[in-house]
Structures are given as C-alpha cells and as structure tokens.
C-alpha cells in the first residue's frame, strides 16, 4: 500500500540522524550477560529452553522473553528468516544468529514494525528497522520538543540497516519510537519492549 504524507517532513532523514547523534538516549536495564558468544553457535528449535532461547527472544523483539521456544517464537523466527533471505524453517541456527547480530537487539516493537539498535563503537550507534506488518510503514522519533520522522515508507517484508550516527548518551527509553502503518496520521507509541543502558547494547557486526 502506498502512503502519502499528511504533513510536511520537517527535515531530511540525514539531518534526523545528525539530531539523533546529539540527543537520542537509552534507558537502563539488565545487561544481556546471558547472551554470551556461545549462544551464537547454538541451534534452537521448538522445545528448546534456557538462557540462549531468552537471548534469541530479546534479540528478535515482539516476544515474551520466557526462555521457552514455542510456536510464537518459531513463527517470529520464520518471519525474520524469510525477510532476511534465509531458509524459513523456524530453526534458529548460526546463520540466523549472524543475521540478528548484524542488526543488534530489539528496543521497540509496534504493529509489526521492530526497531533495533547496536553499538558501532564507543561513540557511534546504528539503528535498523524491520517491517513485518503486512503494509507499508513509517516511523518517527520524538526528541525533546522536536519531532522527526521518515520521509519515505518502509515496505513490508523488509529489514533495513541504516548508517551509524554519533551518540554518547548513557541512557534513554523506547517510548521515543512510534510507527504508523498504512497512513501517516495514525502513529502509535510503543509499549516498552526493552530499555537499555548504552553499556549493555550489543556490538554491531
């Protein structure tokens, strides 16, 4: 579905990233210590349980991170695999882990659109978006009193990795992410999927 803007884009997306560099932040939470490198070599499927399943669920977003690989986790894994060019078998092996590590970890999720974040370096972050909503979607960030949003829609069944931007903030909140599916005038804020301190964000690969 094509979507037409109902209001004027205040600045280009490139400028958005510059603004994000100065002001975007992320809130504190438990560091993903369970997500050790050993998890990236595991193969998980329906019936699997434990800390690596929980780490997978946190990476994907849109799931209850209960450490139990059930039907909902399999469905989410299959959708992610299909939209990133992998064989969609619902089994999370090393190839699926590698794709997830390229995007980071889910910070916000709403209406089938997931926001990912990772650390490029001690001074730069990178965000990605995955649209599995069934429609075209756009997103926005509210930073202080300024509003910034995408000036082109993200098509369905697609995950896009955006460029890195400078950011040295220590904490923040996923509530700054909101999405609109199918139209520009129905933005919905996230409920918090997960908030992170900067030090706990995964490193981009």
Q: How many separate helices?
A: 4
Structural class, by secondary structure, is alpha+beta
Cα gyration radius (Å): 16 Å
Separation of the first and last Cα atoms: 33 Å
The CATH level-2 architecture is identified as Orthogonal Bundle
User: What is the overall silhouette?
Assistant: globular
Output the CATH topology.
Muramoyl-pentapeptide Carboxypeptidase, domain 1
Q: Which spans have pLDDT < 50 for at least 5 consecutive residues?
A: 1-34
CATH class: Mainly Alpha
The sequence of SSEs as H and E is HHHHEEEEEEEEE
Give a written overview of the molecule.
The chain has one domain: Muramoyl-pentapeptide Carboxypeptidase, domain 1. The protein is built from four helices and nine strands. It has helices at about 15-25, 50-60, 70-85, 95-105; strands at about 105-110, 115-120, 125-130, 135-145, 145-150, 160-165, 175-180, 190, 190. A five-stranded antiparallel β-sheet has the order 6-3-2-1-9. It has a four-stranded antiparallel β-sheet with strand order 5-4-7-8, with helices on one face. Strand 4 and strand 5 form a beta hairpin. The chain starts with 12 loop residues before the first helix and ends in a 13-residue tail after the last strand. Mean pLDDT is about 80; it is low at about 1-35.
